Amino acid sequence: MTLSLRTLRWPLLFAVGLALAGLLSGCRGKHRDVDPEKAYKFVSFAVDDKLDDLKASDEQRVKLHEVKDKVFDAAMALKDNGKEWRKTLVTEWLSDKPDADKMHEQVDLAVEELRKAGHLAVDSSLEVHDILSAEQRSDLAKMIAEHAEDR
User: Fold this and answer.
1) 141 found inside a domain
2) Would you say residue 1 has pLDDT above 80?
3) How many CB atoms lie within 10 A of CB 51?
4) Is residue 30 pLDDT above 80, yes or no?
5) Band of the pLDDT at 86, cuts 50, 70, 90?
6) Cα separation of 97 and 76, whole Å?
C-alpha cells in the first residue's frame, strides 16, 4: 500500500489529535473554558472507540491509555499556559509604555512550549507505533486516510 505524505502525517499526530479534538469539542463558544473532565471523557471515549475498531488487547488498551493521558495532560497544560501568555501580552500592550523585551520573552516561551508539544507528539506516536501490531497500524492508517478524504 502506497501512502502519500499527507496520509503519513496523521499517524504521527494520532495521540495529540485525539486530545486536541477533545479539547476543541468542549469549546462551544469562542471564549468559554474547556471543562477538563468532559474533554477527558470525550478523548477517552474516542480512543476506546478506535481501540475497539482495531481489536486491541487489554494490555494494549492499558498502554495506549497511558499515552493518551500523558498527551492529554500536556495539551491541558499548553492551553492553560496560553491563557497566561495572552494575558501578559495584552497587559503589556495596554500599558502606557509596553515592555518589548517582556513581550518577546512571552513569545519565546510560547514557541518553546509548542516545540515541546511537537516533540511529545512524535514521541507519543512512536509509542503508539510500538504498541500496535503491523496489522493494527495498517488498519489505523486506512482509517486515518478515509477520515482525511472526508475533509
Assistant:
1) yes
2) no
3) 18
4) no
5) confident
6) 32
- Span 80-91, average pLDDT: 85
The answer to whether residue 96 is domain-embedded is yes
Quickly tell me which residue has 495521540 as its cell.
15
Write phi, then psi, for 57 (nearest 5 degrees): -75, 165
Q: What is the mean pLDDT of the chain?
A: 81
Q: What is the pLDDT of residue 31?
A: 47
Tally the domains of the chain: 1
DSSP secondary-structure letter at 29? Answer: S
Q: What share of the chain is helix, strand, coil (3-state, %, to 5)?
A: 80, 0, 20
Long-range contact list for 33-38, CB < 8 A, 24+ apart? 34/76, 34/79, 36/76
Domain that residue 34 falls in: 13-149
The sign of the torsion formed by the CA atoms of 19, 72, 3, 136 equals negative
Inside any domain, residue 6: no
Rounded Cα distance, 5 and 13, in Å: 13
Cell 472507540 -> residue: 49
Model confidence band, residue 81 (pLDDT cutoffs 50, 70, 90): confident
CA-based R_g, the chain, Å: 18
Domain presence at residue 8: no
Q: Enter the C-alpha cell of residue 96.
A: 502606557
Placement of cell 496520509 in the chain: 7
